[in-house]
């Protein structure tokens, strides 16, 4: 089954239902079908072949999905472009991906000259009026009118539907090839874990170029209306949860914390919410418990990475509620049970399997695992060894099937001969009422090898480093507690809301 087959089912079952909603209005599933068909024919008019690579440079809006579904109809490959990346970073990703066509929202027309200079082979299509692009939206659609309607995508489950960059939190982003098989695996989990009823309605506020967009595409293919916000604003999100009766929302932890704080300041009716899905980074257990109760036990979370996207493990709202009410700390700290589309083992550095309860690298195999890194066979061979994807995440697999993430291997700090997981220290710091954000890094130290340093964004001008270190020592002891607190007004983030520790270390001179 191809991704477009799922959309065809939605078009047949719900032609008159709202499909996409943004600030400019709404379109029905029948209109989405017609526009995406025109996009597919327009791509044929440009000479885009099967598996040809097409990018979109745009903020969140309905037209993004009209284009993506058209790409899928054509049998081409979507190359998500994060508008929050630097232009030079995107030039590099587009070049390495082999992208031939890029749709550009007028918001980013000022970047067109740079794209032309660096990538002269690109065909640039405006998503509205032509401006500096090669074609306007209307002219592009007109160019495909002579091609057969409903251009059928051909291909097998191994063909790519998406080529996407990794987060780049620990180095240069790599390009991951996601075959149709991965889409089908994600859809199987989505249909069994997420709300799919007649009243389901999803809000996209995180960038649609990453996890939020993938979750929304799955929802749209299941016939759910998708609402778009151009960027995250906690007050606007809560207003939409109340006024639009949103049932499903994806957020990274940083945005989730802001949503909690805003709901405490000014409560809204969020009773329609069925799944507030948290992913993209570890979440502080105390904040998870606080948010789960605040939002009516509708919070869920999942674990994946670009190389095995979204659904390696899934924690249901019921599991989180049980963990909070029964005081089950291990369950609360887990990211859920391993899903039906993968197998997971915990391995040591030599590749030996570790028993339940022991900490090691999380390794994954199954239909959710991507094919590897485009044009980088050495990195593919390093990540996929002996039939397992080595995720680079340290974790524990419990006998119950629950997976608990400790940290990234590259974020582990070795201080005085002890292993310290940055995520564990960050979770403790976030319990302090005067800490808004925290990131922990290792800094070279003549005595300790590395010393634990916390970069903290405080509330209300708080600056008592001694008190904060003492607070951390109560839970962590003196070895794991920060040796130094550095105050900051903000932490650098990736487009999906993760702390960018490469940028943070550079900023801190490490």
Task: Identify the notable features of this structure and list them briefly.
510 residues, alpha/beta, 14-stranded mixed beta sheet, four-stranded parallel beta sheet, 17 helices, 26 strands
Structure description:
The structure is a single chain. This protein is α/β, with parallel strands linked by helices and 510 residues long. 35% of the residues lie in helices and 27% in strands. It contains 17 helices and 26 strands. Strand 11, helix 10 and strand 12 form a beta-alpha-beta unit. Helix 1 packs antiparallel against helix 2 and helix 10 packs across helix 11. The model has no long low-confidence stretch (mean pLDDT 92).
List low-pLDDT spans: none
**DSSP strand content:** 25-35%
Class per helix and strand makeup: alpha/beta
How many distinct beta strands? Answer: 26
Largest sheet: 14 strands, mixed
| Portion in helices | 25-40%
| Rg | 23 Å
Distance between the termini: 48 Å
Domain AMP-dependent synthetase/ligase: 7-374
InterPro entries: AMP-bd_C, AMP-bd_C_sf, AMP-binding_CS, AMP-dep_synth/lig_dom, ANL_N_sf, ATP-dep_AMP-bd_enzyme
Organism: Brevibacterium senegalense
GO molecular function, one term: ligase activity, forming carbon-sulfur bonds
Brief summary of the model shown:
With 510 residues, the chain is of the alpha/beta class. Helix content is 35%, strand content 27%.
